[in-house]
Amino acid sequence: MAxxxxxxxxxxxxxxTAAAAGVAAFNVRGAHAAGKLSVxxxxxxxxxxxxxxxxxxxxxAAKEKxxxxxxxxxxxxxxxxxxxxAEAQARSGHDILAFPTWYPADYARQLEPVDDIMAELIxxxxxxxxxxxxxxKANGKWVAVPAAPGSQMxxxxxxxxxxxxxxxxxxxxxxxxxxxxxxxxWTWDAFLGAAExxxxxxxxxxxxxxxxxxxxxxxxALFQSHRAQLVNSNGDIIxxxxxxxxxxxxxxxxxxxxxxxxxxxxDASNNRWIISGxxxxxxxxxxxxxxxxxxxxxxxxxxxxxxxxxxxxxxxxPFLPYFWGIWNFSKNKSAAKxxxxxxxxxxxxxxxxEGSRGYDLPSFANLTTLKTWGxxxxxxxxxxxxxxxxxHQIQSIAAxxxxxxxxxxxxxxxxxxxxxxxxxxxxxxxxxxxDWAQRELQGFKRx
Amino acid sequence: xxxxxxxxxxxxxxxxxxxxxxxxxxxxIAFLMALPLILLIAALxxxxxGYAIHLSTLNKSxxxxxxxxxxxxxxxxxxxxxxxxxxxxxxxxxxxxxxxIGFVVAHLVHNIPLKGQRKWRGMLLVPWVIPxxxxxxxxxxxxxxxxxxFNWIIEGLGGPRVPWLGExxxxxxxxxxxxxxxxxxxxxxxYLAALKSVPEQLYEAAEIDGAGWWQRMWFITLPMMRNIIAxxxxxxxxxxxxxxxxVRVLTAGGPIDTTHVFATYAFKLGIESSDIPLGAAVSLFMxxxxxxxxxxxxxxxxxxxxxx
Lengths: 447, 308
Hints:
The complex is a heterodimer.
Chain A: H1 8-27, E1 36-42, H2 49-64, E2 67-73, H3 79-90, E3 96-100, H4 103-106, H5 115-125, H6 130-136, E4 137-138, E5 141-142, E6 145-153, E7 156-159, H7 160-167, H8 171-174, H9 188-200, H10 213-225, H11 242-255, H12 269-275, E8 281-283, H13 287-295, H14 297-300, E9 303-305, E10 316-326, H15 333-343, H16 346-355, H17 371-375, E11 394-396, H18 404-412, H19 415-423, H20 430-444
Parallel strand pairs in A: 1-2, 1-3, 10-11
Antiparallel strand pairs in A: 3-10, 4-5, 6-10, 7-8, 7-9
Helix pairs in contact in A: 2-15, 2-16, 7-9, 12-13, 19-20
Chain B: H1 2-7, H2 13-24, H3 26-56, H4 69-75, H5 78-110, H6 114-129, H7 132-143, H8 149-156, H9 168-196, H10 200-208, H11 213-241, H12 245-250, H13 262-272, H14 276-284, H15 287-307
């Protein structure tokens, strides 16, 4: 029989060795030591833009030892909205999800507060504008972080040659590359005059008036620059005002100088309009310019993105921020916060803006002068004024500042463009139209 | 007690033999064979329908039970009644035209010699077999008022451009047209199958009796096809009322909501406007009406079947 060496001294020694090995094992940073993270990003329109985001995520995942899974979810057919609704119902899915404009407020109860991230980012990247705060905060708390990918403005994108030739407006002189705007004369009245001249020259402005986002956005800016609100910030319906009447009268004059079919246009129609060479101006992010450069270079080289016209209440530009939110049922909230933090660093944002050819807009004040917008061409400087580098205009969203849950209804149900359609194509009187709007808005107040 | 029951004479064997008998019964076997389908329907139809009913009784933030308040709210909205009206116009007009076109085309195909008939049947079924979201996209391009082939031809002939999707009348016409184009082949194939099942002798006897074309149609063809017509119309009415893709792709409910049908309006409210309970209420509105219509039509079909 072999002699046992299990003495008290040996046992203590072996126990100590095993304990040390155990501690060491917990401290080993394996390939995916910090767990898994599932992310649903918006599938970008601009070819190649997703690659920049993927590269940044992978770089972060390798550094933090996280097993990351990225899904790009398209907004075509509102698939992203369906995904948000399904995950909220199931309380399961991605850890981080991209939320368009109104959706952080709608799902605020199921989103993890991100005040800690926002405080740090604002300190580092500068303040965010009022629209970002209006959309990203609920009950005084940040519920989502403004993301550069997908955030966009929809300012005028004009044909340099046609505007000069037919409307006598030099958009490059008005909004010079690298310098502040000289656009005091660029008002909604001047815009109307230019629309008439271009229409008569056979190159009308292509402004959609259907029920999709592009239509609602420019009409929202038109309303805001005339101080025309449907519902105020307290939730009171104030649609029957002189300002709203003034805008509807203006719209009646403008519509006669637009293509007759603008009421059926979708978000792609205005892009086609400018790329086909049939129009002198549209209001869109630089995706239409990017496609024109690719498919119709002679037209792309004549496009200049610049500021909105001003109205009696100021110069308002339609701004649609995208957000990244963390579900409160996420299983890896700390990793989710760490990734969002990494993607909002100035260097990361610069890469994202470059990868999207200037389409993506950071919401932070210190990041509106990145070199991409100044350098990209053709023509050089075409996107210089796109991120509003001189704070020349107020970035806002249609229906603001009324409470987001009502504003969302006004926006998605396109109340403002419907009002214009009623007083123009339907031939309805302004009084009748306002009565209709009052009834609609009353319904939107439903809790 | 348990051991007593097991050992009692006859006590243990009686349930076992009755179980065996039940298992051997034809109805039990039929039930067991249908069980996977029943479970599938329960999972994919009954559960979602029940869940939709549950959702429709919640408030906007889905935190409180509000009973029928969502329905009451809808009944006060003029847009909702416009949607009811439009859905009815859309479904009734489309089904009538699909039935008429299907009936006529089925007769034409039926009269083609058998040798070439298969080719025609195949070609005529093409609109029905292409996924509607895809074919509707092609129609969307055809209807584009600035660049479409339709308007190019009309302009070439000296006519004005037609706002196919931008003006209420034209937009309603366009969505109905595409639905008829898509659905008529289904009616055609169903009617063709019914026509082929009418015994030739009946027509021969009628001809000997001196019956004309109209009398043969009225007294032989239509009565023999009655059940198929009823079922096809019922099925198509339900499907057309529930249509989503054609309206969504072509007009998204515009202009000014004048082409919305229940499904697109429910999507607009539920998903786009984040009011899922209200969207659920819209989608459920037609359920009782269609269910009652289905019960009556199917009862009539059953009665005639039993008489036959």
